[in-house]
C-alpha cells in the first residue's frame, strides 16, 4: 500500500460528492435527526427531570458528541471510501494495523441491524398517518386509542406491509446515488421537516399550556437529577447524532475538500439539538394541556399524543402532520444507516449502485422480519430473555455503537498524526486544539461510561 496518497485531496470518492457545504449539512442533519430526536428525546427528558436533564444533555453534546462527529467526518474524508476500506486505508497511511478496518465493519453492521428494527417502528408512523387521516383517534378514550397500536402490533400482516413499504422507499432513494438520491431527498425532506415542526409549534402555542411546557423544559431542577440521569443524557447525546454507526463517516467521504469540518460539524450539532428541543416544545404543551403524563416513556408518541390530538379541534389535521413529520425524520435517518453498507457492497463486489441497494435492502428487510413478528407470531421467542427486537436494540445501542464510537475517536486522537488531523480540520486553530484534547481524553472516557453503564458493568463496579 505504499502508493496510498498522503492526503484525501489526492483521492476521490467512487460515489461522487456533495455539491455544496449546505448539501452535506442537510444530509448529516437528516441522518442525525430521526426518531431519536422526535420520539425518544421528549420522553427521556420527561422521565429524568425535564430542564435539568436538558442542560446536562447539552453539555454532553458539546464535550462528547461534537468531538466524535468531527472524528468520523475527518476519517471519512481522509479515506474517501466506505467505512471498512476507509479505516483500513487511513490506518495503513498512518503506519497502523489494517485491522482498524474491523471498526468500520462494526459500524456498517450496526447500521444494518439498527435499520432492521428502525424500519418497523418507522412503518408504525406510516400506518398512523392513515389512522390520523381516517379519524381513528377523534373523541376516543385512552383504551380505544391504545387499541390502535395494539392492533397494529398484533397483526403481523400490517407490520410486515409497512416495514416493506418503508424499506422500499429507503432503497429507492439510496439506489439513485449521492446527488440524485441522497442529496435530492434531504434537500426536500429536511426543510420540509423544519416547516412541519414550526407549524406544530404554532399549534402547541394555542393549547393553553405552552408556558407550562417551556417551564418544564427550561427551568432547572437539579434535585431531580441522579447519576443515572447523567449517564442517560450522555447516551442520548451520543446516539441522537447517529455517530458510531458508519453513516457520518460515509457522508464524510463525499465531503468537498474545501469545506470546513469544524464549522460543518458545529452547524449539524446545533441543528440536531435545536430540532430535539423544538420537538419537546411541541410535545410537552400538548401533554400538559390534556392532563397527561410527560414521563409516559415510549408510549408518549404512539399512545399519549394520539389521545391528545383526538380531543382537540383540528386534531385530524395536526395528528396527520405530526406523523408525516415523524416519517420524514425516520426516512432521512434510514438512508444514512443504509448508505455505508451499500457503498461497501459496490466497492467490494463491483456491483452497480442499484443492485447493491436492492441487495442490502433485502438483507435488512429479512432481518427486520424478527422485529415485525416480535409482538405477534414470535412473541414467545427469546434470546437471553429478550424478544428479537429488544435483543437487537440492546446489542446495537448498548454495545456496538459506544464501542465503535470510542474506537473511532481513539484512532483519530491517538493513532492519526497531528499533521494529518490538522490538514483535514483546517490547521492548528483553537477549535482543532480543543478537538484534540476532547477526542483524546474526554470523549473516550464519556463513551466508555455509557458502555459500562449500558452493559451493567458500572453497577457491578460501584456495587449499586
Task: Summarize the SSE layout with pairings.
Blueprint: H1 21-32, H2 35-47, H3 51-79, H4 83-93, H5 101-133, H6 142-154, H7 156-175, H8 178-205, H9 210-218, H10 227-240, H11 247-252, H12 261-289, H13 299-310, H14 315-349, H15 353-372, H16 388-415, H17 418-425, H18 430-454, H19 457-462
Helix pairs in contact: 1-8, 1-12, 1-14, 2-10, 2-12, 3-4, 3-9, 3-10, 3-12, 3-16, 3-18, 4-5, 5-7, 5-14, 5-15, 5-16, 6-13, 7-8, 7-14, 7-15, 8-12, 8-14, 9-12, 10-18, 12-13, 13-14, 14-15, 16-18
Percentage of residues in helical conformation: over 70%
Number of discrete helical segments? 19
How many distinct beta strands? Answer: 0
Order of helices and strands: HHHHHHHHHHHHHHHHHHH
Overall domain count: 1
Q: Tell me, what's the shape? A: globular
Unreliable stretches (pLDDT < 50, length at least 5) are 1-6
- What is the average of the pLDDT values? 86
Structural class by helix and strand composition = mainly alpha
The Rg value, from CA coordinates, equals: 21 Å
The main β sheet shows up as: none
Structure characteristics:
single chain; 464 residues; mainly alpha; 19 helices; disordered N terminus
Describe the protein's architecture and organization.
The protein has 19 helices and no strands. Residues 1-6 have low confidence and may be disordered. With 464 residues, the protein is mostly helical. The chain has one domain.
